Fold this sequence. Notes:
The chain is α/β, with parallel strands linked by helices. The chain has 11 helices and 10 strands. The strands form 2 sheets. The protein has a 7-stranded mixed sheet with strand order 6-2-1-7-8-10-9. It is globular, with a radius of gyration of 19 Å.
Amino acid sequence: MDFNEFKNQVHKSFGLDLNSYKENQLQRRLSNLLVRKKLSDFGQLFTVISRDRQEYVKFLDYLTINVTEFFRDVKMFNILEERVLPELLAKGRKLKIWSAACSIGAEPYSVAIILDQLTPGVTHHIDATDLDQTILQKAKEGIYTADAVKNVSSERLKKYFTVRGDKYIINQQIKDKVDFSQHDLLKDNYPRGYDLILCRNVTIYFTREAQEKVNRRFVGSLNPGGYLFIGGSETIFNYVELGLNKTSPCFYKKVAHA
Length: 258
């Protein structure tokens, strides 16, 4: 089985659209997986993930590259805390936020911590989604390494985490502020009515066509005046056409008439 047939069979069997990923990056990554698993070709890989659900879960985990940390890209999170969230909060209502492709949960928990300090006692609606069920379970557990919390201030570490050995456990009060669920950005319906959507360092692995589809759907999910917060290595080239204004690096605001 060649690479293209593998992609077709995965789509047919699992509903996972690998054609929306950048082909060279994907093929190189999956070829490395063949070497690691000592498999001779993509046909053997397909047999393995088809026969064993746990192997398919491991395949998904490898595919989705779950690298993240709290307050990843500190300068951009400072803009979020000092400019974007205060602007949204000035509207005088509880916010609805979506952390898409949330990985181990560090991103939505970072937002929950900021909001807890900006609006003490107020419960905002934070949805966090990912394709990978295994990683969502880790997010719900909220147990992190020192590397994951390296950008968290000592004051926030003391207030929002419990240290147990070499692990940092997010407090229950922050856990309770985030709702986790499975979602496939490439095929599932997009919920609506959000004031802020975070999708960072994810679409860089998608084709340009898939990126545009995802961004259009994000805009449809945003309220007028809402913000899309993307990764530092990502750019939305046609943001004006999509009905967005670029307010600073990584931040795009939906125009009122979009």
